Amino acid sequence: MLKLEQAEEIQLPVRDGTLLSGHLFKPEGSKKCPLIVFVTGSGSLSYKMDWQNDSFYFCRTFVSVCLAEGFAVLLVNKRGVGDSKGNWKSQSFYGRADDMYDVIQLMKIRPEIIEHHISVAGHSQGGWIVQLLASMYPNDIKSALSIAGPAYSVRKQMVDNMESELIMRGFRRSVKWLLFLYSTSLTLYQYISTFVKTGYISYILSYDARDVIQAIKVPTYFAFAENDHLVPLEKNEPLARELLKDVNIPWEIRVTKGVNHSYASSAKYQTWDEIESKASPGLADLLSDFCKWTRKHTY
């Protein structure tokens, strides 16, 4: 089993001097290799949880597959998570993208990294950040992988998330009017947020990926999960295809069957208490395919 101690622990100073913590994994026997920088999702859990609790698996799986494909992998904690300094709760998506851009610049000068072969990958909210990076930095990023990253706005994703939560809690009959109340409260909150920031959501609520996906400038691979109740497939996959139809760089959309938002085997609306918390074979297949796809379209 892959151990965290196999990686090099590094500190990454970004433009304002804030230090982000990370672990760099390198494939055995490679003097210089391509790199994938992994962008974590929402919340305050560190990627280190994958090595502290067996029910966490996403980052471990990601690293293991990419190493086997000959890629180095950098895991980075966002501001205020793990050993990283700063505070992610007062940061917009553009701020997170700026941090990751600075990290990429630091990795370019590493002697074991091929400086013009750096890709980015992110899961969930990290998918939003990856899409943003792919639209902003075509000269710095070789390819991008958005895993369960929404194709629409933060507001729409929050409403869809609430709908799923209500259904899973047994309020199916009340969903329509409860969603109306929730949507109305978000409208008010978003209006207030234009004048004063009152909590983390106020920094990101106006973000809309639809404007970003149409502007991507590097080869980008979009992965969706069939039974994702946080980023519903039926709303995001067709939208992503529509947004990408006039994009002239290589892109790919892949749907993994029978998995939830975190790529564990699951039916739609099943809770973690009802399923086994481990990576489905589809996650490894997806990651391996992305590595091969990156080589095909960028080398």
TrEMBL record:
One of its GO terms (molecular function) is carboxylic ester hydrolase activity. Residues 68-238 form the Serine aminopeptidase S33 domain. Pfam families: Hydrolase_4 (PF12146). InterPro entries: AB_hydrolase_Est10, AB_hydrolase_fold, Hydrolase_4. This is Serine aminopeptidase S33 domain-containing protein. The lineage of its organism: Bacteria, Bacillati, Bacillota, Bacilli, Bacillales.
